[in-house]
Amino acid sequence: MAVVRKRPQLNLHLPLPESTDRRPRFPPPLPLPLPLPNNNNSSFSTVDRLSDLEKLQVLGHGNSGTVYKVRHKRTLATYALKVIHGDCDTTVRRQIFREMEILRRTDSPYVVSCNGIFEKSPGDIAILLEYMDSGTLDNVLRINGTFSESSLANVALQVLNGLNYLHTHKIVHRDIKPSNLLVNSKMEVKIADFGVSKIMCRSLDPCDSYVGTCAYMSPERFDPDTYGSNYNGYAGDIWSLGLTLVELYVGHFPFSPPGQKPDWASLMCAICFSDPPSLQESSASEEFRDFIKCCLQKDSSKRWTVMQLLSHPFVNQNR
């Protein structure tokens, strides 16, 4: 007689289907330009009008708008200009306003800086951002190949410093991944894209589970009853950082073979039921393997915090 092992019940909080009602429900307009934090960028005060800028090239397209590389006509300073169309989807519009609010609050060398927010035309918004000339870590991986441990220690240290700043100011990013980490030719790494981030009112404020990129979500976001009932987002950022570092080291997303894009259900099962990715069978150093293990604890209460990881030998090897 076959023995059937009882499978633990998953209490997955699946998102409800989107409403078919497409009438706009945009947030109320904010006064533009918004007040911004003091910024050490010497060219910060020179950008008063969009007409002061000239477009150099398109950096990227999306359903909500376009990102341009621009140059200030007088100072020749270079920026990235994110232009969002007024007729974009309601959800995207809400994310843009959330990003604007967070950019208005932040001032850290490890977070991409905002140099101005303008109303380009009725309904359209333009956000002037720091230009990072090497693009994203995802771009660097595709062009230059996998990262060395020394480079990853440098990346990890900078991202942890950025997360330490954000978490100290009660901001949870919720979408840490290679394509949201910008880098320049000096290998300075900065956290960007705060569209699904959250400003916490209290340290244990609940976060919506299904925001961000599914592939980099932590187990407790799918099944909080099993992997951490007090989901607050901070530990989720650490899990995403761990996956990001493994991806940059092995050259592909850790939960799937090279070249394969798993579907949502496969990802959910892999994250919840499979062992966390590890580097035990690789040539990685003991310090790096241990650092990844500290990031990728499935039980969120056992995952190391930002402050604990900042003291880890792996990120301190280049100091």
The quaternary state of the protein chains shown equals single chain
Give a count of the beta strands, DSSP E runs of length 2 or more.
9
CATH fold name of the largest domain: Transferase(Phosphotransferase), domain 1
Assign a percent range to the helix content.
25-40%
CATH class of the largest domain: Mainly Alpha
Q: Given the structure, what is the number of helices?
A: 9
Unreliably modeled segments = 1-34, 39-45, 202-211
User: What is the total domain count?
Assistant: 2
The overall average pLDDT, rounded, is 81
C-alpha geometry: globular
| Shape-level CATH architecture of the largest domain | Orthogonal Bundle
Structural class, by secondary structure, is alpha+beta
The amount of beta strand, in percent, is 15-25%
Sequence-ordered SSE layout with sheet pairings:
Blueprint: E1 53-62, E2 65-72, E3 78-84, H1 90-105, E4 114-121, E5 124-130, H2 137-144, H3 149-168, E6 171-172, E7 181-183, E8 189-191, E9 198-199, H4 219-222, H5 224-227, H6 234-250, H7 264-273, H8 286-295, H9 306-310
Antiparallel strand pairs: 1-2, 2-3, 3-5, 4-5, 6-9, 7-8
Question: Can you describe this structure?
Answer:
There is one protein chain. The chain has 319 residues and is α+β, with helices and mostly antiparallel strands. It folds into two domains: 44-130, 2-Layer Sandwich (Phosphorylase Kinase, domain 1); 137-316, Transferase(Phosphotransferase) domain 1 (Transferase(Phosphotransferase), domain 1), CATH 1.10.510.10. The chain has helices at 90-105, 137-144, 149-168, 219-222, 224-227, 234-250, 264-273, 286-295, 306-310, and strands at 53-62, 65-72, 78-84, 114-121, 124-130, 171-172, 181-183, 189-191, 198-199. The strands form three sheets. A five-stranded antiparallel sheet has the order 1-2-3-5-4, covered by helices on one side. The chain has a two-stranded antiparallel ribbon with strand order 6-9. A two-stranded antiparallel sheet has the order 7-8. A hairpin with a 2-residue loop joins strand 1 and strand 2. 38% of the residues are buried. This is mitogen-activated protein kinase kinase. InterPro entries: Kinase-like_dom_sf, Prot_kinase_dom, Protein_kinase_ATP_BS, Ser/Thr_kinase_AS.
